[in-house]
Amino acid sequence: MASVNESLVGAGEIDGAVMNGEVAYITIEDGKRLKAEVIDVKPGGTIYLQVFEDTSWVKVSDTVEFTGMPLTAKLGPGILGSVTDGLQNPLYELGKIEPFLERGLEVASLDEKVKWHFTPCVKKGDHVTGGSVMGFVPEKIFEHKIFVPFSMPGTYTVVHIADKGDYTVADEIATIRDPGGKTIPLKMAFEWPVKTPMPFHERSVPTKPMPTGIRILDSLFPIAFGGTACNPGPFGAGKTVLQHSLAKYSEADVVIVAACGERAGEAVEVFKDFPKLEDPRTGKSLMDRTYIVGNTSSMPVAAREASVYIATTVGEYYRKQGLNVLMLADSTSRWAQALRETSGRKEEIPGPEAFPMYISTLISAFYDRAGVEILPDGKSGSLSIIGTVSPAGGNFDEPVTQATLLSTGAFWGLSRALSDARKYPAIDRLDSNSSYPSLLSEEEVLSLKALLREGKSIASNIILMGEKGITDETYIQFQKSELVDAVFLQQNSFHEVDGVTDPDRLRMMFDMVWKIVESPVNIHGKDDIRSHFNFLRQAFIDWNTIRPDEEGFEKQEHTILNLIKQGIHAQENV
Amino acid sequence: MLRKTYDHIDSIGRAILNIKAGGVHNKEIAEVIYPNGEKALAQVIALDGDEVTLQLFSGGFGVSTDCQVRFMGRPIQVGFSKDMLGRIYSGSGRPIDDGPELMADMIRVGGPSINPVKRLIPKEMIRTGVPMIDVFNTLVRSQKIPIFAKAGEPYNRLLANIATQTDADVIVIGGVGLKYDEYHYFRQRVEEAGSMSKTIMFIHTHRDSIVEGLMVPDLALAVAERFAMQGENVFVLLSDMTQWSDYLRQIANAQDQIPANQGYPGDLYSQLASRYEKAADIEGAGSVTILGVTTMDDVTHPVPDNTGYITEGQFYMKDGLLEMFGSLSRLKQQVNDRTRSDHRNIMNAMARLLSEAEERVKAQKFGSVKDDYSLRLLEYRKTFQRELMDPFRFLQLEDALDLCWEVLAKHFKKEEVGLSSGLIEEYWPEKGQFRILKDGNP
Questions:
Q1: How confident is the model at residue B441 (pLDDT cuts 50, 70, 90)?
Q2: Most buried residue among A573, B3, B136, B391 by CB atoms closer than 10 A?
Q3: Which helix (H) or strand (E) element contains residue B304?
Q4: Which residues of B touch A527 (CB under 8 A)?
């Protein structure tokens, strides 16, 4: 040990070789071992380490022990349903030791006492390669494939494979032999270096929309299975609520929540609420498809980066299982800030807003780990990544937002003006975009966008000239645009029914709202027009809160249809 | 144990001292011993070989190159005892009232955060009697929430009101960069409210060194957390975290750190977060609720901006009123469905109409607002400001909700407010029967 400056530690007088990225442990006076990672090797032999723990009480004479191994994630059955810190230490296990996150504690990433029912699918004498499936265990929502570790090159022969039965991740379940005759024992779990992307067997492009249950996304700004999206926004514009809705309702098989440098309370809501909620697609607890990795804002900063990479690696692993995985990274800005802190302490020449120059490269490489993969059995899996960005001052013209926009396929810009007006989700209707196909037809999307643009332009005319300054026809068009926004794009995430809209219901709602848009309104006078649309809006919102199989649904549908008719035939009634 | 002293001082800055020494621990406490025998406290903040960087609690002025430094072999600690209730301490933990020194257990300061699995989902409303809070941005036990306001707004009055009008078991006041009269005000208000016996104050005023100011939140929160672990519901008031951030900036600058935005260090977010995140409702124990003050001119300034991303909302005070837009309680959804059946809906309806009215305010500047509905919206906005936005009008939640209905009924027709027929039937007041509205019976 040569120097200490918050999470950055310098080491000198090293015996042997040191690898950039390898994990090291600092042993402090009371015998606690602090985990760290080599981030730089400087001229003169000084090694810089970022320490994943609080560095209080470290001394210059403390010893550093290098492991020769990069930071890895442990991959195997037992990840689903778990909650870990940024270094994959299960938080419930840590909580049994101490109520506070004391440093120097490490527990097994995967519970080594749990027995998994293993069914082999290879036999003695079979040839296998890295990535071959040796058998299956049931894990919560699906049949979890037990692989030969992906990192193993060449072809091997199976010497021994365990019989069908119950094993833990610490048990050996197979022995394989390489062409040189060396035998290698295998377990159900293996490690993968988190900063190395897992190679795709065969990469394909994201083209199939992933229903999220959020109408404005599924219609206007969709994300595809295997796609990427970012939602930047100032605080208070609804990022958190949006992330929670996505975690709950997206039609992914597995959801990974990387709570990176954000409020602990938000992660707590997820892992305390999800076990009580049912996943309608599996009938099981929502937690059964969820993995939460949390380095919340008051945990040691250096582990923020690790938390993002561990989440991504786990996502790639479940993609290899043939599942559609959604990873939510909240917030990538906190990760970038952690890099900025470390970069500053290393006295690197800073880029814009003191972020390191290489921030954009890291961000692009991170989103590139999302994608669709065609697996050896011809089936496919996908990893979609949705990253939140928390730009300073809510200004999108900053390095992290800009780098993210270049790397993602959909942009959901959150707007304070919309959230002030309580128009949730407060995703900017005109500035956001997506390069993925929608659940609506291309033509429908274009018409919808055109109507919203027209509505906005009429709104600015009304401000300038007053309602009296525009014609009834224009005012009706304005009311139609406002109605589409209010009843279709806006959604009450806290409402049991309105909070999630499946593709069938989305179609039904769009057809209904579009019927209103396309029907003439033969009413004169701004007050009567506004009143007509108020009734329509109210009826539609009520309809949104009723399940299609519930009593009153059809009645409410007729109420809307009648109102449409009243609008058309208003003149005749007079 | 006799500890070695060091006298190879390399440099002395406004708050930083560098000295050559061996066997020193990161974050260790040291004594700076002046030639005349007087002592001052310092803390190790960085080590590089035998070069030790210390942060001086009472500043660098008066420190001379022939001072000696003695390392104390312990980290920063603060006393903890029930006898501290009713007492006032400085940012270095010394009593500054006229009371005696106390024998107290020493506890660590700035310890690790609570394991998230030990946190409970916040679920208990705190009634403050302030309509803009109780109705529109409900405060919840264990919430961390600051008041955003320009310097000079009556934020400390509101802070003291909330703390003394609620049911906190223990109040811990952390004053950072207070003017002497503000300190005096807090003390007086707590005494007047009869709450002194459940209050501990850690006070830093402008005559004290900035390092002591930096320490105040840590001392206050360490003590608060310990009370919470013993089952108490603790309210922590921190005023003013913008000045605290400024002190952080000064120290970072003295250490030649590369500044991020507006000279603040790159870790401003993490530094603020590690304090605010001490707010928690702890399984099997009590809770810590933090009410802060963030003075500001512009919400995009780095301090309010970073704070907003950390805290669970903010109360935005402007011209002595609590604003609807800009104010937010992120935890209100946890509680406002269990107060009264109309709470959530009327809250949303009032906000939506106010937002519509704000649009008309813009249009009004062009002289284009002439229709009856728009004019009524503008009248509604005036009534709203007068009746509901005053932070010092005390109303029980139920009365405040009734007042909302009266304000709506004064200006709108039933079908204009976008509330369900069921609620309207139950709560819509008839004109002439207004109970709370000040000038309500037309």
A1: low
A2: B136
A3: helix B302-310
A4: 371-373
Record: fold of B78-335: Rossmann fold (3.40.50)
Residues 328-357 of chain A with CB under 8 A from chain B are 334, 337-338, 340-341, 344-345, 347, 350, 353-354
Instruction: Determine the residue type at A95.
Output: G
Mean predicted confidence (pLDDT) in A219-237: 95
* Residue-level pLDDT at A274: 94
pLDDT digits (tens, 9 = 90+) for A394-431: 889 999 999 999 999 999 999 988 988 888 999 999 99
Contacts with A337 from chain B: Cβ below 8 Å? 266-267, 269-270
Q: Which value does ipTM take for this structure?
A: 0.92
Strands A22-27 and A8-11: unpaired
Q: Assess A169–B contact: CB distance below 8 Å, yes or no.
A: no
- Give the model's pLDDT for residue A128: 96
Q: Which helix (H) or strand (E) holds A47?
A: strand A47-51
In this prediction, residue A523 carries a pLDDT of 95
pLDDT category at A573 given cuts 50, 70, 90 is low
Q: Say how far apart CA A252 and CA A249 lie, in whole Å.
A: 8
Helices (H), A346-441: 359-367, 399-407, 416-420
**Taking residues A111-129, what's their average pLDDT?**
96
Domain map (residue ranges) of chain B? 5-75, 78-335, 343-427
DSSP conformation class of B363: H
Q: Do B260 and A344 touch (CB under 8 A)?
A: yes
C-alpha span between A569 and B13 (Å, rounded): 83
Q: Which residues contact A551 (CB under 8 A, 6 or more apart)?
A: none
Query: How far is Cα B260 from Cα A79, in angstroms, rounded to an integer?
Result: 38
Res A178: pLDDT: 94
Residue among A102, A392, A465 whose CB faces B368 most closely: A465
Condensed to tens digits (0 to 9), the pLDDT of residues B152-161 reads 999 999 999 9
Note whether A318 and A252 are within 8 A (CB). Answer: no
Residue A425 has phi, psi (to 5 degrees) of: -65, 140
Q: Is the pLDDT of residue B306 over 60?
A: yes
- Name the percent of chain A lying above pLDDT 70: 99
Please name the residue that has the structure tokens 């190395």.
A196
Instruction: State the CATH architecture for A3-69.
Output: Beta Barrel (2.40)
Which CATH code for domain A116-188? 2.40.50.100
pLDDT at B2: 60
Domains B5-75 and B78-335 share a fold: no
User: Angle formed by the axes of helices A553-568 and A526-544, to 10°?
Assistant: 160
Query: How big is chain B by its Cα radius of gyration, in Å?
Result: 25
Angle at B281 between CA B280 and CA B282, to 5 degrees: 100
Taking a C-beta distance cutoff of 8 angstroms, is the pair B382, B321 a contact?
A: no
Task: Give the position of tokens 């091997």.
Answer: A156
Query: What is the C-alpha to C-alpha distance for residues A430 and A485, in angstroms, rounded to an integer?
Result: 12
B319-330: average pLDDT? 94
Q: Is B246 helix (H, G, I), strand (E, B) or coil?
A: helix
Distance CA A437, CA A434 (A): 8
What topology does CATH give the domain A442-573? 1.10.1140
Mean pLDDT (chain B) is 93
CA distance A430 to A417: 13
Residue of chain B minimizing CA distance to A264: B116
| Arithmetic mean of pLDDT, A40-68 | 92
Is the domain defined by B5-75 classed in CATH 3.30.450.30?
A: no
Residue-range domain boundaries for chain A: 3-69, 74-107+200-434, 116-188, 442-573
Tens of pLDDT, residues B177-215: 999 999 999 999 999 999 999 999 999 999 999 999 999
Q: Which CATH class is domain A74-107+200-434?
A: alpha beta
Give the Cα separation of B61 and B67 in Å (integer). 12
